[in-house]
């Protein structure tokens, strides 16, 4: 299941230089750093937060990705499946489990035109059934990550990174996969300090 119709998906040229310009204006020190890109899957609407189902205007992973963008100046690229998951939490979990069991590779609305110029990929996603959403596998299996560094960050409500780091290494055998950052979803919008510390420790210079 999940054969991708690549002809129907848009290829997007990424505005790296514009992002770096914004970073300079904010006074961030990006000199000497390798070219970076933030790729993330996020889901708003109903989410499980601290034991309660809440309707979110912005997904938790998107909030964390935005913080990384502000701290690094790296451009953002959201992974958006053509067929979105249900807005209802319980139905979404059932759909995600079915995709996992069927090893689905959902088609994405758009793909980066190329990753060749990027040496560092920040890869963000929520924990779905102890790993990444299947749309993230679609992205990883499309490109050659040999020689690139991947820094995973994952939002969750108690399950941490799960086996997602192992799965990234399996999809990207030529990449250097740094230790991931697990962020409790309910804390994502206020996670700047922990994200900054993670970047300082693992972001290549």
Q: What does this protein structure show overall?
A:
- With 205 residues, the chain is of the alpha/beta class.
- The chain contains 6 helices and 10 strands.
- The chain has helices at 16-25, 60-72, 89-101, 134-140, 164-171, 192-202; strands spanning 10-12, 36-40, 45-49, 52-56, 76-78, 110-112, 120-126, 149-156, 176-177, 181-184.
- Strands 2, 5, 7, 8, 9 and 10 form a 6-stranded parallel sheet that branches. Strands 1-6 form a two-stranded parallel sheet.
- The longest helix is centred in the N-terminal third of the chain and has 13 residues, at 60-72.
- It is globular.
- The termini are far apart.
- Mean pLDDT is 87; it is low at 1-8, 16-21 and 23-32.
The chain-level mean pLDDT equals 87
Report the C-alpha radius of gyration, rounded.
16 Å
User: What's the overall geometry?
Assistant: globular
How far apart lie the N and C ends?
Answer: 40 Å
Portion of residues in beta strands equals: 15-25%
Number of E-state strands: 10
Binned, the helix content reads 25-40%
Q: Can you tell me the residue ranges where pLDDT is under 50 for at least 5 consecutive residues? A: 1-8, 16-21, 23-32
Would you tell me the structural class of the helices and strands?
Answer: alpha/beta
Main sheet characteristics: 6 strands, parallel
Order of helices and strands: EHEEEHEHEEHEHEEH
